[in-house]
Amino acid sequence: MNKPPKAAIGWGGETEFEKRRGVSSVEVREGYAQVHVSELGQDIVNERLAVLEAITQTGVSLDFLKLTPSGLSFLVRQEEAESIEECLQPLNVKHTVRPDRAIVLVSAVNIRDEEGLLADLVHRAISSAARVDHISDMHDRLLMVVRASDAPQLKECILEAQDAS
Amino acid sequence: MRVKVMKFGGTSVATPEARMQSALRVVSAREQGFSPVVVVSAIGRKGAPYATDTLINLLREIDPNVEPDARELDLMAACGEILSSVIFAHTLKTLGHRAQAYRGGQAGIRTDGVYGNARIIGINPTSLFRSIEEGCIPVVCGFQGVYVSGDGAPGGELTTLGRGGSDTTGAAIGAAMKAEAVEIFTDVDGVKTADPDYVKQAPTLRTVTYDEVAELAHLGAKVVHPRAAEIAMQYDIPIWVKNTFSDDPGTEIVKREDFPGRRVTGVSHTGKLVYLQFDLAEASEPHRIELEGRIYQIVSEHGINLYMVNLSPSGTGFAVPRDQYPLLRDLLDALVVPLDEGQKSIYLFQIGPRTREVEMQAKLLEPLGSYKCVRAALTEGCTMVSLIGHEYMQQAGLFHAVLKSLADIQIPVLQTSDSDFSLSVLVPEADAHRAVRALHDRFGLAEVV
Questions:
Q1: What is the ipTM of this complex?
Q2: What is the count of structural domains for chain A?
């Protein structure tokens, strides 16, 4: 059904309530580095723990950890990337640190419960020109990690799709 | 006028005795000088004769192969609250108090037009104020409202608010009527640090912030619905969660400024999920991106919900609700995707163990030359277990502490997800009890108040 024009309803003195469905905002946060640890061995559970323990020793708080089939991937603040690099070297694990990353943060209330919304946003991001390095979701937002230079374009792409819908 | 909204859940109105106990609480509030506005759920929980599920089954059992229309489902589902409100109002009358039952629309609750999961757009509580001024106690049906299309059709369309709808009704009416408090009555003492079915000694939290309770509720705690917490937070309406059947003081939900929070608030669990991890390591990068795009396009077009989405150079993965998994499997298993880029490449999707459909497609593809298989590792029966807190969630080493606690008791973690207030892990459903208990112990939640 279409949303009703308010003037046609004639209900005075209303208090407005719940947030509208769909994307409510798209925000870009810069200044991150993405760390990808791969090709861990057979004992992947303990090797992942060893990586995380080494990072804990540096005092760096990592964000948006994802487990990958052969390792793990996460974000740190750009200025902390060097500490991470230093702590991973002695562990002798294959890793890449991608600097100059930005998070494109898409907020939508109950994003996981809005049928197909999360998949639609991921599909649009993957199909855009931006290369998406990392994705994570929460109950009210989706974050996508891209090169900082690609972030404004991805933001526009999401906003345009939202306007069109 | 000191309005107090008192919402009673299914168990609080399940029997004549329970209704009497609930009604006496309303009378007591009135005697203390409040103007109570009652919101009720349907009578009893799943399986009870007038519970929402039972009413809906009356439609489904006619022919399980014919899905009832969403509009008719909403009309049927709303009957439970209508019965409940009329019976509750009459119970109050037997105690010597005038009371009037109100459907959601009569109470001024206007929603959008999404049957089964409507959102409240606005409330005009004029009829409720009028009822109070006439000396009555309004008893409002939870979980429902009305959609007015603006096309001149009289009456509007009855809509239901989806999960936790009665809590949402209670909080929204509280906000619209500028209530002194909203009390949500249930059959537990308040918001606990974990599901008491999982952790028997889980203490009741005496104070929690809106943020904490919304996060807990979003991640599975059933005691108050997140939509209710969000409305209360927006309008700064104090909410209490209390036990209808005990004198426990319950849990007060307050603004962040009024309670600094604690390191860790609780552990929740939610979801009957199926986890899929697609291996795209064999595809070139352009093909991997195309295949990922195709997967998410199909998932989106069929309205499938996702949790714990992840993307890496070797593939992508996500969890889906178990009831949506058969549809996803039908869509993706044995799917053939030809991609052209210089040399023609064909990809054949295989979800979990190789099925007859995949075998048949493979045979059909053989004459065309080589093809590549995109396999999705499948873990059926998963649950999301979450640790909820405030700033402590940003503490260095938290991921390590959580994963190690679970590894120490041989619980495999399939995926993780985190936010400002929570850290979630996806674990096999069979291990969910142990995971909740382990994290509850590890973070000292038995001592939290």
A1: 0.87
A2: 2
